[in-house]
Amino acid sequence: MFAYYLELGLRSLKRSPGLTILMVLAIGFGVAASMTSWSVFRAVSGDPIPWKSAQLFVPQIDMWGPSGRDPDGEPPNAMDYTDAVALMRDHRAKRQSAMYQIAPSVVPTGAGKHPLNVSGHAVYSEFFPMLDVPFKYGSAWSASDDTNRAQVVVINSKLNQKLFGGVDSVGKSVNLEGHEYRVVGVLDHWNPQPRYYDVVNGGGFVIDADDVFMPFQTAIQADIPNDGNTNCNAVPEESGFVGLQHSPCVWIAYMVELDDAAAVQAYRTYLDGYARQQQASGRFSWPPNNRLRDLPAWLESQHVVPSDTKVSLLVAFGLLLVCLVNTVGLLLAKFLRRSGEIGVRRALGAPRAAIYVQFLTEAGMVGVAGGVLGLLLTGAGVASVGWVLPKDIADLARLDVSLLALALLVAVVATVLAGLYPTWRASNVQPAWQLKSN
Amino acid sequence: MDIRPIFAALRKHRIPAGLIVLEIALACAVLCNAVFMIGQRIGEMHVPNAIDEAGIVDITVQGTDPKLAAADVPRNLAALREIPGVTAVAAVNIVPLSQSGWNSNVATGPGELLKKNTPNVAQYLFSRGGPEALGMRLLRGRFFDDAEYADSQLGVSYLPGGHVALVTQSLAERLWPGQSALGKQAWIGDDNHYTVVGVVADILRPDRNGEGAAGFHWAIFLPLSPASVLNTYIVRSNPGDRGRVLRDGIRKLEALSPNAVVKGQTFTEVRDKFFADTRSMVGMLALVCVVMLAVTAFGIVGLTSFWVGQRRRQIGIRRALGATRGHIMRYFQTENFLLTAAGVLLGMALAFGINVYLMQHYELQRMPMYYLPAGAIALWLLGQLAVIGPARRAAAVPPVVATRSG
After folding, report:
1. Is the pLDDT of residue B120 over 90?
2. 3-class DSSP state for residue A253?
3. What ipTM did this prediction achieve?
4. Which of chain B's residues have a Cβ under 8 Å away from the Cβ of A235?
5. Helical pair B4-12 and B14-45, crossing angle rounded to 10 deg
6. CB 3.0 to 4.6 Å from B323: which of A120, A189, B193, B318, for a disulfide?
7. Hey, is A123 helix, strand or coil?
């Protein structure tokens, strides 16, 4: 019976090709626009480390007091040197790392080669296991390297390719800002988007992955300055990078790993205790006002998803809605034109259900055709978002099976939904009246 | 023309009529908001920037020894000045629209920084010749003299030790509304203050830094003797020469500091990079508008055609009773006009609602009221264009149809 309905539908669609093409085009465009925006939105709002994001937390300490808070009472979104180092020393979480952005210049070995700027972060050794950073060669440095300010670095595979031609370079040396550092590890491809461990710098989405990581205290000692944002509530009293370390300016990102609710509670208590201790010592003249957000809540609070992306998603769904209303209208026009045919079928004994199946089949066929067109246009859309959207975000939008399946599903479900009302009207056709008037 | 029969007919086709109205309402709502957003972004891209945008290139040198800057900077400037076609050069700390900022809060008196809501301002530092190299336009007062450049050293906390400053017109108006800024003191921190000696036409800052559209022109300019923070060279020439000047400049600076990373670009490239996101958003919104208008127009064509098909007999009867082709045409055009009118009325309310929602959630501005009637007129025109084809076909129905049964 279904095959018969398919044939009927095909015949009916062929009878008015203009109307059919209109419907398919409308569905195709609507689906393509909304799916392209959706792929971008999904890319930027996705969880960058889904298996672990619930255990990663970002602490914030209110070291500026009431005058430095946002209107909503939010403390600064980064740490000053004093607090970051104190928290690292106390070491109360399972794993933790303070970090700051660096941009040292690398001098390649071999004459005639130009030095190049690389970007990276100065971190603690626990950074790598905490974020499940994949290594291709070697491993992270050790906790004792942190305390001993060892002259070691971890580089990514891109820099390894550039400097050493991609071979296992563990043990070789790299010249950063005129000093030699020993390579202890080479990362496998790792460029999480958003770059969740430091979203304060670069707004979360950065095209190029960090090339180099070095121990935090090693970088401080080597005077490698902060390349990220620095925010001050007062002018530092001393100049230079050392002055920055002694100032209340915030420029350090911080992340901790806490396994369960009890650990989170314990860490909260610890942070409040720390702030109260600062209050007692006279450094803070206000009660504790700390925050401890898990990673998804932190990304939300920092508005990592650009509002333009959300607006374009809304606009695209508006377009899909217009296309759907359009399809309802056109299907209605199509189905009602055939009241004579419906009258005959009903008079010959077809129940209402049969009329439903027949017309929903036809609507579904339009949906599939629209969906296939939508797929092609989505493919073209995702491929061309590069010139429509910021490069760093466009790079993230990818076509995958789930997106294609979703596009097809949206098209079919939308069209069948759009077909419901016209079908209901069609099935309500009075057979006697139709037969009489003909 | 009597519109009562039209209403009578529409009452019989409530659902198709309702669908057209709904479609037009949605299209009107989305269109008004999308066009408004497009307009805003295009406006953003054309904010004035009173420097010689077409004639300047900037070259940044990184990785040199900061202790040698006092000698390096004059040497580099002299080398760049020798390039044929170069009219002015200067070393600066930041470049407009470069997205890498240097900002301070500026107050009109000491101790105000924490108490008052002080504006966050881009802090430009430049060596002698800065105003000429950038092509700044002086509105009141004067530029710096040689002694003021020579006296200004970078002190503690990266603030120059000089005592004079230039401000943009917008910043002058923000700090001292309704007064002359000349001779006033601009405070950065509680210890450093600068006498305003000149007001210049508005220049953009490297980024908005959270100060929104109003603060995009808040900038202060301080003179500085050669220092390591002045690591970007502004080289000005005729627009036709700038490609060659850029290449020569990079080559010269690379030769002078072989261990440094030297990068350069024209200011046009800087501007394009800054507004790339904005441009792409405009492109995507425009695409959505075009597709939506097309879909709406085709929807009207489709539904009206169906309608005409259903009413061939009535049309035939009217024609047989003496109605001209023009009457039939006008009937469908009026019908479309009424449906569109209902649609745009609903659509304007919806557009306003969406705008209010976007304002609350996405930092959008209020849509000026004239967008609503403009959107209405656009959809009226679209409806009338779309209905011409089906109305023609209706008018072509011969009177003889009335005599046929079924």
Report:
1. no
2. strand
3. 0.75
4. 157, 159, 188-192
5. 100
6. B318
7. strand
